[in-house]
Automatic annotation (TrEMBL):
Source organism of this protein record: Micromonospora violae
Protein name: Methyltransferase family protein
One Pfam entry name: Methyltransf_25
GO molecular function, a single term: methyltransferase activity
Listed Gene3D superfamilies: Vaccinia Virus protein VP39
PANTHER family for this protein: METHYLTRANSFERASE, OS06G0646000 PROTEIN
One GO-annotated biological process of the protein: methylation
Domain Methyltransferase: 60-149
UniProt entry keywords in alphabetical sequence: Methyltransferase, Transferase
Length: 240
């Protein structure tokens, strides 16, 4: 499915009826051949925007998956870079692709770091956290950053009501809600549970100062608004 190197429909069904961790362990060897991997255009646009704010020293990729986001960290960080994910399968793939990075298996809702990083990034992971779980995620990233550190991630504008993407994401989320209502363990993956205003409010509540510059290179919607923004959540230099 998706490409000759990607997972089959049967493999996707098995993964979808597993837990999130087990599902990604199964998907890991073929993950980079699916549309679920963050496109290089988003990674490149994020790296270009962050290059204007850096360089940084230590970088952290939160929910790193197979390590695609490490290319962003490598381009803007001059010291060590670290990826954290709770899927051993995804980390195995990431380690083989980026052997010089540090890899940590941990739940992003309980990150095991304290004031160690100058930059944290995350790509395509918010849909794996229910709205009630975002505060723990953001508070953990806040603790992991040094004063003045930045947490950055792209967030797309919602697709227009008349677009295929709108109905596709709506249908996907409804299907996942039905699946999680009738099947255990749950598989948390939703496209429509992290709107920009709610994400910004949760980051602010965690202590960050938030700005949302447009990633103009990724284009505009018909109304002239940007297709994608880069969330820049900065930890104050004097957080106390």
């Amino acid at each position: 499915m998706f490409s000759p190197q990607g997972p089959s429909l049967r493999e996707l069904c098995v993964q979808a009826f597993s837990s999130v961790e087990r599902g990604y362990d199964l998907l890991a060897p073929k993950f980079d051949h699916t549309p679920f991997r963050t496109p290089d255009s988003y990674l490149g646009a994020s790296a270009d925007a962050l290059s204007e704010l850096g360089p940084f020293d230590r970088g952290l990729d939160v929910c790193c998956g197979t390590g695609a986001g490490l290319m962003v960290l490598k381009s803007v960080c001059r010291a060590g870079i670290t990826g954290v994910d709770f899927s051993a399968g995804m980390l195995e793939q990431a380690r083989s692709a980026q052997p010089d990075a540090t890899w940590v298996q941990a739940d992003a809702r309980a990150l095991p770091f304290s004031e160690h990083f100058d930059l944290a990034v995350s790509f395509g992971a918010l849909g794996h956290f229910l709205p009630t779980e975002r505060p723990a995620l953001f508070e953990g990233v806040y603790r992991a950053l040094r004063p003045g550190g930045i947490f950055a991630f792209p967030i797309g504008a919602p697709p227009p009501l008349t677009s295929t993407a709108h109905w596709a994401t709506l249908g996907f989320d409804l299907a996942m809600r039905v699946r999680n209502a009738v099947w255990r363990p749950p598989f948390v993956m939703y496209y429509r549970t992290s709107p920009l205003p709610a994400v910004r409010d949760d980051l602010t509540a965690a202590g960050f100062t938030v700005t949302t510059p447009a990633l103009t290179v990724l284009g505009q919607r018909r109304d002239g608004s940007p297709r994608c923004r880069l969330i820049l959540a900065r930890k104050p230099t004097d957080p106390h």
